């Protein structure tokens, strides 16, 4: 059975959605990132980068156990293993382009927009504006792409849409202060609502609900989440 290392944040939620959509059996293993559990030697052996999500597949290629980390890599790995949510074979090059656009663009810029609006010290106006505007630019690219298309790849619901859903769910934090954060991007809003209405999305949202993940933003949490902001211990 797959072991799924999880915290209820956007990138792990993409994998939660895929697992529920594909009906794969898995064991959810909580990793409380606000307590620094992502930095333990046991977890670093699975993901040396100390981030969630990660999976361990005991039945990988050749029957050997494999570790996979990074949400984009995990989506690709699971989709290829199961042969699901990959779209048409002839569209693969374009699908990979959109998947990387989300993994290297929308996700990181959205995350930094949230960080500078909610976690950074006061006086970071340039950074706040830079990351928020870039996240919004990515929204517009996707909104334009979706004109006349049901999903990002056309008629087929794929891992590209699942990847987008994870971060679009946090649009209210990315676009802080907006009453309708996706309202300016109607095609994108429609896509999000379509995915969010799927039964698998509702099941994904229930994952980890019974685990007491830390919610307090204190010094321990800041050191766990942003360790590079602090000098190494002498």
Automatic annotation (TrEMBL):
Residues 203-234 are annotated as: Disordered. InterPro entries: Glutathione-S-Trfase_C-like, Glutathione-S-Trfase_C_sf, Glutathione_S-Trfase, Glutathione_S-Trfase_N, Thioredoxin-like_sf. Residues 203-223 have a biased composition (Basic and acidic residues). Residues 88-216 form the GST C-terminal domain. This is Glutathione S-transferase. It comes from Ancylobacter dichloromethanicus. Gene3D superfamilies: 1.20.1050.10, Glutaredoxin. Pfam families: GST_C_2, GST_N_2.
């Amino acid at each position: 059975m797959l072991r799924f290392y999880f915290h209820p944040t956007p990138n792990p939620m993409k994998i939660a959605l895929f697992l529920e959509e594909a009906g794969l059996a898995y064991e959810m293993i909580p990793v409380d990132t606000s307590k620094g559990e992502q930095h333990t030697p046991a977890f670093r052996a699975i993901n040396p980068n100390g981030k969630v999500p990660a999976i361990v597949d005991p039945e990988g290629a050749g029957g050997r156990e494999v570790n996979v980390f990074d949400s984009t890599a995990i989506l690709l790995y699971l989709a290829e293993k199961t042969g699901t949510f990959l779209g048409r074979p002839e569209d693969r090059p374009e699908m990979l382009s959109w998947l990387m656009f989300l993994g290297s663009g929308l996700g990181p810029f959205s995350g930094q927009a949230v960080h500078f609006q909610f976690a950074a010290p006061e006086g970071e106006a340039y950074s706040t504006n830079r990351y928020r505007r870039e996240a919004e630019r990515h929204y517009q690219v996707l909104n334009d792409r979706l004109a006349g298309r049901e999903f990002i790849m056309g008629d087929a619901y794929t891992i590209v849409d699942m990847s987008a859903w994870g971060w679009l769910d946090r649009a209210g934090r990315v676009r802080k202060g907006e009453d309708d954060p996706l309202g300016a991007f109607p095609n994108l809003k429609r896509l999000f609502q379509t995915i969010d209405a799927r039964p698998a999305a509702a099941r994904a949202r229930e994952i980890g609900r019974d685990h007491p993940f830390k919610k307090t933003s204190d010094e321990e949490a800041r050191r766990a989440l942003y360790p590079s902001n602090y000098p190494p211990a002498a």
